[in-house]
Amino acid sequence: MIPEDKVAEVRDRADIVALVREHVALKRAGSSFKGLCPFHNEKTPSFHVHPDRGFFHCFGCQVSGDAITFLMRIEGLAFPDAVRALAERVGVEITDLDDEEASAAREVRARRDRLLSVLESAAGFFVNSLDAHRFGEMAWAELSHRGIERATVERFRLGYAPHGWDELAQFLSRRGVSPRDAEQVGLIVPRKGGDGHYDRFRHRLMFPISDVHGKIVAFSGRALAAPPDEAELREAPAKYVNSPETALYKKGELLYGLHEARVELRREGVAFLCEGNFDVVALAQHGFANVVAPLGTAFTEAQAKLLRRFVASAVLLFDGDAAGHKAVAAAQPLLARAGVAGKVVTLPSGSDPDSFLRERGAPALRALVDQAPPIVEWLIERAAQRAGRDPAARAAEIEALGPVLAAIDSPVEARLYVERVAHAFEVSDIGAVRDQLRRGARGGGAPRRAPADAPAAPPAPREVRLPAVEAQIVGAFLDQPSLLGTDCAERVQPLLTSAELRAILVSTARWAGARAVDAPALLEEHSESPARRWLERRLAVQEFEDETSARRFVERAAPKLERDRVARETQRLRREFLEAKRAGDDVRAEALMRQMNESFRGAPRTGSEVER
Question: Rounded distance, CA 431 to CA 312, Å?
Answer without folding.
Answer: 33
